[in-house]
Design a protein that fits this description.
Elements lengths: L3 H28 L4 E6 L6 E10 L2 E9 L25 E9 L2 E9 L4 E10 L4 E7 L7 E7 L2
Length: about 150
């Protein structure tokens, strides 16, 4: 026969372990989340170009341009964009959408390059303990794209 105190101690231990597990999962998801503000770094010039805010809504990531760094004008328009995005001001424009988590990466969405007006498939991977975001834009196969590494803004 199992004593009542043994069952009680077991249940307390399970509650503590469950709470620890939840804390660890929440901490891991927060540390590994691309949600936040990022400074984009151009992969060709190595110069900072903009600040992008990434947010999550119902498990899907989106990103918009918060500000341009050293812009040619106060707020240029997306003259090379097509359709509804044509001539839309770049600052405030949602350029990233539809990414969902797949293990350690976010994929399945698109990113718009306001300079060229082209839309690419995109893959995001957190690096450097959440301080760097690897952003891979591509058409077709991910291995045939370009990669930028964005820096988290404090």
């Amino acid at each position: 026969m199992i004593r009542k105190s043994t069952v009680s101690n077991f249940l307390r231990l399970m509650a503590v372990l469950a709470a620890l597990g939840v804390c660890l999962v929440v901490r891991a998801q927060t540390a590994a989340s691309p949600v936040g503000v990022w400074k984009t770094i151009d992969d060709k010039s190595g110069k900072a170009k903009s600040h992008i805010q990434i947010w999550e809504h119902k498990g899907v990531l989106y990103g918009k341009i918060l500000k341009l760094i050293d812009p040619p004008s106060a707020n240029p328009k997306c003259i090379n964009c097509e359709g509804a995005m044509h001539n839309v001001p770049v600052v405030g424009m949602t350029i990233m959408r539809g990414l969902t988590r797949d293990g350690d990466e976010w994929n399945g969405g698109t990113v718009l390059d306001p300079e060229s007006g082209k839309t690419y498939n995109v893959l995001l991977v957190m690096e450097n303990g959440g301080k760097t975001l690897k952003v891979r834009g591509y058409i077709g196969l991910a291995m045939l794209g370009r990669t930028q590494r964005w820096q988290r803004v404090k």
